[in-house]
Design brief:
Strand order of the largest sheet: 3-2-1-8-4-5-6-7
CATH superfamily of one domain: L,D-transpeptidase catalytic domain-like
Helix content: 25-40%
CATH architecture of one domain: Beta Barrel
Largest sheet: 8 strands, mixed
Structural class: alpha+beta
Number of strands: 10
Number of helices: 7
Order of helices and strands: HHHEEEEEHEEHEHHEE
Strand content: 15-25%
Amino acid sequence: MIRKTWLFAFLVIPLFGLLLSTRYQNTLYYPKSKSGFRFEQQKNERVKAAYEKTWPGISTQLKKIGVDTGKFQLLIRAFKEEAELEVWVKSSTQTTYTLYKTYAICATSGELGPKRCQGDGQVPEGFYHVNVFNPYSNYHLSLGVSYPNAADKVFGCKRDPGGAIMIHGNCVTIGCIPLTDEKICEVYVMAVEAKHNGQTTIPIQIFPARLTDKYLLALKERFFDKKLHTFWANLKTGYDWFETKKYPAKVTITSSGKYVFE
């Protein structure tokens, strides 16, 4: 009897302790809520799985760069020529953003220049924000880009400037910004966290390229459309603002479709 009791204690109790420990660790594995935006999103199995897979790496990297894992804000920049998407972060108490990570855009469509019409295959260029969280996307997970904005409506096709532009997974695109499924999981989770913790507007800035003085001159030499030159020079003002200050300008749009930064 003593031997059986000893064997039970030796084999079963440590296993039970391990199960309890694992269960406890899983409760801390990623942030959960009983209400709010995060709670509603985590009802979806894709989002729940994305949290479980990506949150340890996200939280480690945020701590490494000095950003509060419990309350941070997000800004996204995309560069068509370089096929790169940047995610910038800051604690809610900080003024300036820090680069979190640069992701490869894994498929492209169209050419440099803004989107103007439904079906033109173009990726938009301009200043937008996240306007949709879609965990049921055909492209794994997707974040909506608020195209067309007021500037796009001035310059775009009056019949139909297009829409439903997304940052999504699955590496296929007609006018969207695709990442791999693994990478969209990370970006999506960070956007959910930012919104859940109070960021009402997550900016998305989309540029034809990194608009340095030298590269803008090169673009003008490649493209002869003067309207494009004027448009890109306008975008460059917003590009330079963030490059210099590391926080976005307040963007307004005139009745003529020009971006104004202040």
